[in-house]
Amino acid sequence: MISTPSILLGALVALQATASASPMKQRWLYEKYFDLQGHRGGTGEAVENTLPALAWGLLAGVTSLEVDVGITKDGVALIYHDEIIDKTKCKDTAAAWADDKMFPYVGKSVANLTLAQIKTLDCGSLRLTAHPMAEVYPGTKLSTMDEMFDFVDCATSDPVLYNIETKVNPEKANATRSPEDFIAIMDKSFAKKDATFMDRITHQSFDWRMAVLSKKQWPTMRTGALISDASIYNNPNATTIANLRPGATNRLAGIDLTKVEGATVGERVARAAKQINADNLAPAAASYTSTNPDASSPGYVSFITKDMVDTAHALGMKVKAWTINRKNAIEPLINLGVDGIITDYPSDVRVQLERNGKYLAPKADYKRVMGCLKAMNQVTKDGLSTKGF
Q1: Can you give the residue ranges of the GP-PDE domain (predicted)?
Q2: What pLDDT was estimated at residue 251?
Q3: N or C: which end of the chain has fewer CB within 10 A?
Q4: 3 state SS of 6
Q5: What is the full DSSP assignment across 296-334?
Q6: Closest Cα to residue 37, out of 232, 216, 200, 273?
Q7: Phi, psi (5° rounding) for residue 8?
Q8: CA atoms within 13 A on the CB side of 264
Q9: Using CA atoms, how far apart are residues 309 and 321, in angstroms rounded to an integer?
């Protein structure tokens, strides 16, 4: 048995070797693999956007860890999806200090809570109804973006990619921190990293202003344009060019899709993403008009179309589909030519991708990952840091 100290020493040696290599040789090294992405780390594997979810994503052999980032009141980049602390995901334990008028914190906005307040929450005990097989890790605290980077550096020497989604509300200005705040605060974390590390990051958002600001701040960083029916239609139940929402919106960074060239909605979506210089188009797999979630059944309507994928490819972009949680959806997407799949169940989707001959990233070492999780997963006083249930 290899001891944890030996593992970490080996990781340090490997990281030093990587750092000494030519940045151009390391640039986007993991992109040789089909982009299997663990959604929120791997929501179906363990509680979303926590170190345990990242751990199980690594063990599944993801190419990319997809995570969400919000910004706290005191300006810290936090790995969490929702604008408000969700009672189905987190539990209060105690106030951060005596007579804290913000307590209880569940139900409060992330943007109105400090990191100290958020760190009192137990966000590892509750298993979501939609993911009954997910591991829970009682007492697990939410992590900062810096803490996530440190954990992954500990858990693997492979240059796993990050797909970081910034949770900016494009329509309600005070619901989250501003796009400019997100860029400035994230830059504090990125400034600690070298060019090789930065090459592993994609920044995506439903608010395309973030992609524009991202390219301005970090010109070589890849960006992703997230989109679904809700971003472009007046009525998502009528998905035609005639029903496209007219006028500029923050969701599309000021682009009016009715004025974008294209014979189909799919072509226009791809060309709009190119206008903001996105590297990836990240569309929802299913249209909201679907009456059946199963891609092989009557009533299913795909939002992703062949013309969307082909146009994106012709313009030099890749297409990363979300959120793929049914096996019947995988092969049709592969036939459409998508370059990546974002899923809550990376271990199961990996099996299907292997059957389709996709070249996939290696799985991380179990002992090393769990050793790092034991050492680095922060828990409340009643937590059980290393044992899932």
Answers
A1: 34-353
A2: 96
A3: N
A4: helix
A5: TSTT--BSS-HHHHHHHHHTT-EEEEB----HHHHHHHH
A6: 200
A7: -65, -35
A8: 13
A9: 10
Residues 235 and 257: their CA atoms lie apart, in Å, by 15
Separation CA 276–CA 244 (nearest Å): 19
Q: How far is CA 137 from CA 51, 84, 379, in A?
A: 10, 21, 9
Residue 196's identity, in one-letter code, is T
Helix (H, G, I), strand (E, B) or coil at 258: helix
CA distance 325 to 128: 15
Nearest-5° Cα angle at 173, 168 to 177? 50
**Through-space distance between the first and last CA atoms of the chain, rounded to whole angstroms:** 25
> CA-CA distance, 363 to 240, in Å (whole number)?
42
**What is the Cα–Cα distance from 339 to 307, expressed in whole angstroms?**
15
Residue 36: Cβ within 10 Å count: 24
Q: Would you say the pTM of this structure is higher than 0.85?
A: yes
Phi/psi for 232 (5° steps) reads -130, -15
What's residue 29's pLDDT? Answer: 86
Torsion sign over Cα 40, 42, 44, 46? negative
- What pLDDT is attached to residue 26? 65
Secondary structure of 113-152 in the HEC alphabet?
A: CCHHHHCCCECCCCCCCCCCCCECCCCECCCEHHHHHHHH
Q: Which helix or strand (DSSP H or E) is residue 14 part of?
A: helix 4-20
* CA pair distance 319, 270, nearest whole angstrom: 9
Cβ atoms within 10 Å of 230's Cβ, excluding its own? 12
- What pLDDT is recorded for position 236? 73
Residues, the chain: 389
Mean pLDDT by 10 residues, the chain (389 residues): 38 38 65 97 97 98 98 98 98 97 98 98 96 96 98 97 97 93 97 94 98 97 97 87 94 97 98 98 95 92 97 98 96 97 98 97 98 96 70
**Is the separation of the CB atoms in 55 and 373 below 8 Å?**
yes
Q: Which two tokens stand for residue 156?
A: 């693997």
